Automatic annotation (TrEMBL):
CDD domains membership: RWD_RWDD1 (cd23816)
Highest rank taxon of the organism: Eukaryota
Coiled-coil regions listed: 111-139
Name of the featured protein: RWD domain-containing protein 1
InterPro entries: GIR2-like, RWD_dom, UBQ-conjugating_enzyme/RWD, ZC3H15/TMA46_C
Similarity section: Belongs to the RWDD1/GIR2 family.
Keywords: Acetylation, Coiled coil, Phosphoprotein
Species, as recorded: Heterocephalus glaber
Cellular component GO terms held in the UniProt record: cytoplasm
Role this protein plays: Protects DRG2 from proteolytic degradation.
């Protein structure tokens, strides 16, 4: 009869010795622990890191352990999915023997690959953004090619908008005409208008000033008498001067 507990205990001791700085026991029953895996430094000293959590099943190693990504850093979703697939494959291939070291080693190699891919991914994203910007600029300058169909569609829309503007203007002019009052209506609606001139004169009183220099005595004016003809009579018919 296989002593699973002894195999599990022996592996735990070995793992604690191999990973002294990244191995942490979470519980003893069932045995559960974490191991932090950090990639080698990539460009700009960037690293990829994930903490794997393992829990022994009752019949481990004849059964695969339970595993999950306890935490992660600089890992994209696709990378996390790839790590899960890798763990499943390695666990299936190593059933019957203690396998945690093998699983962690596989993940270590994977995160090293991922950190090397970071530079490539960034360059690809940069090129994609530049391409999208170029396409947007071309679209801005070239616009949409004019065809008979889209021209007729645009013209129908333009004519409809123009008709609405004309209707609105006519309506506003008609409304303005209705609201405009005649002179009679103004006096009927505002009774102050018929007394405004009289009120002005009353308020002025004796303060009205007249410039006397504008007037001259009649004797100072030189009037020229024009005779129209031999029959011209300055007095006129029926005058008392005729005897």
């Amino acid at each position: 009869m296989t002593d699973y507990s002894e195999q599990q205990l022996n592996e735990l001791e070995a793992l604690e010795s191999i990973y002294p700085d990244s191995f942490t026991v979470l519980s003893e029953n069932p045995p559960s622990f974490t191991i932090t895996v950090t990639s080698e430094a990539g460009e700009n000293d960037e690293t990829v890191q994930t903490t794997l959590k393992f829990t022994y099943s009752e019949k481990y190693p004849d059964e695969a352990p339970l595993y999950e990504l306890f935490s992660q850093e600089n890992l994209e979703d696709n990378d996390a999915i790839d790590i899960f697939k890798l763990l499943a494959l390695q666990a299936e291939e190593n059933l019957g023997v203690v396998m945690i070291f093998t699983l962690v080693t596989a993940v270590q190699e994977k995160v090293n690959e991922i950190v090397d891919q970071i530079k490539t991914r960034r360059e690809e994203k940069k090129k994609l953004k530049e391409k999208e910007a170029e396409e947007a600029e071309k679209q801005l300058f070239h616009g949409t090619p004019v065809t008979i169909e889209n021209f007729l569609c645009w013209k129908a829309k333009f004519d409809a908008e123009l008709l609405e503007i004309k209707k609105k203007r006519i309506k506003e002019e008609e409304q303005a005409g209705k609201n405009k009052l005649s002179g009679k209506q103004l006096f009927e609606t505002n009774h102050n208008l018929d007394t405004s001139d009289i009120q002005f004169l009353e308020e002025a009183g004796n303060n009205v000033e007249v410039d006397e220099s504008l007037f001259q005595e009649l004797d100072d004016l030189e009037l020229e008498v024009v005779e129209d003809g031999p029959d011209y009579n300055p007095v006129g018919p029926g005058s008392d001067s005729e005897d």
